[in-house]
Amino acid sequence: HGTSMINDQGHLQIGGCDTTELVQRYGTPLYVMDEQLIRQRCREYVGAFRESGLKFQVAYASKAFCVMAMCRIVEEEGMSLDVVSDGELYTALQAGFPPSRIHFHGNNKTPYEIGMAIDAGIGCFVVDNLVELHMLSAIASEKRQKVRILFRITPGVEAHTHEYISTGQTDSKFGLDLDNGSAYLAIQAAVKLPFIELLGVHSHIGSQIFEVEGFQMAVDKVIGFAAKVRDELNFVFSVINLGGGFGIRYIEGDTPLPVGNYVKAIAESITANFSRYDYPTPEIWIEPGRSIVGDSGTTLYTVGTYKNIPNVRKYVAVDGGMTDNPRPALYQSRYEAMLANRGSETNEELVSIAGKCCESGDMLIWDVMLPEVHTGDVLAVSCTGAYNYAMASNYNRIRRPAVIFVKDGEADVVVERESFKDITGNDRIPVRLKPTTQ
Ligand code: LLP
Q: Where, by residue number, does the polypeptide cross the bilayer (predicted)?
């Protein structure tokens, strides 16, 4: 997919770059991102919305992969950006991302984060609960700065990847419940606050979703609520944000729709439903993360040791693992892999890919077919662009890998590999501890 192909030497090539050369130049583990594919996904979303004729914003959910170069791409593609912490906000501002296109999410924004975001002049806060509303209102009045907000509501639709539960989502740490009246009360409170400008509501139904039905169900719920708020409180929403969660293909058998189909289905159900209620069509915002960057990423590893346990399995260990990709350990997520240096050879053995952390759960892939693997081979794990670098850790004091963007035969480092200095840089030895004896 994307610009990935096997070249004449039988090497995996991405963005016109031979991955074995990338490995020589940058070392492993290495995150390789296909810039053209990232841009293509951005354009698919934006293009589908343009076609729909609706007013829209596509806000990239930066939690999936938030580095300064990525913020630049999102800006160039004319999109907005969703951040959930001061660190993501800082990254965006450092990258020169226009503050007015930043949306601030999160269920527990600190006063510091709120102040920082107001001072930066961000476009919108997605307010999660009443405590936050009043905290935000107090800080905004103190600063004499009006802030624009959406309320995050729990629409009572929850996607469990392949199915939807349409009741009983009240028990969530996120958002204000629609059915028990909390969302309604919050709106009543917000419209009275002088430094709060309410735009509308936000709903996010889950992640790695393949079907359009969940989004349609959410639209249904939201419009019903919007109509009630208009009729009873005389307040009309100008923005509806439907969150992210559009699925991608990690392994064979995953069946996401083309990005444009989700947008089309959402646009159709918005147009149909709102006109049914004679409601002025609001601006539609969405927040894709995974589906923008997920399939653009490939992680390259060097194979180290391996061992065969007869009649059980062969373990092949690579020089990374749960520190650069915690998803298999955390979510039992599955990935596909190939040997990047032997891409045209036939797969002949079933192996399992282990990481190098001191933990039995540090397995990247259980059961994958590969050519007979040797020490020094380069293993490429695909679809690692989302929630991999973003969730990487220094467990076992392993240094985080470098991230590079490849495009048209050029490679650029967008995150340097961590150094040993990064590992001990924040450590301090209290003076009362005995000095080193060396
Ligand atoms: N908007 C909101 C409010 C969200 O909570 C999320 C994801 C997104 C947008 C973006 O969702 P996406 O399009 O990326 O599915 N670490 C997990 C995923 C956690 C998603 C949390 N919220 C994983 O690795 O699968």
A: none
> Is the domain covering 5-34+294-424 a CATH 2.40.37.10 domain?
yes
Least confident segment among 12-21, 156-165, 215-224, 287-296: 156-165
Query: Could you confirm whether domain 35-293 is CATH 3.20.20.10?
Result: yes
Pairing of the two strands 313-318 and 297-309: antiparallel
358 labelled catalytic = yes
> Residue 235: is it exposed, middle or buried by C-beta count within 10 angstroms (0-12/13-18/19+)?
middle
Distance (Å) from CA 300 to ligand 1 centroid: 24
Ligand 1 pocket, Cβ-based, cut-off 6 angstroms: 61, 64, 105, 204, 207, 243-246, 287-291, 327, 331, 386-387
Domain boundary assignment for the chain: 5-34+294-424, 35-293
DSSP H or E segment with residue 34:
strand 30-34
Mean pLDDT, residues 289-303: 98
Q: Over the stretch 56-94, which tens digit does the pLDDT of each residue have?
A: 999 999 999 999 999 999 999 999 999 999 999 999 999
Average pLDDT over residues 208-222: 93
Could you tell me the two tokens for 173?
A: 């740490």
Atom index in ligand 1 nearest the CA of residue 391 equals 16
Nearest CA to ligand 1 atom 5: 204
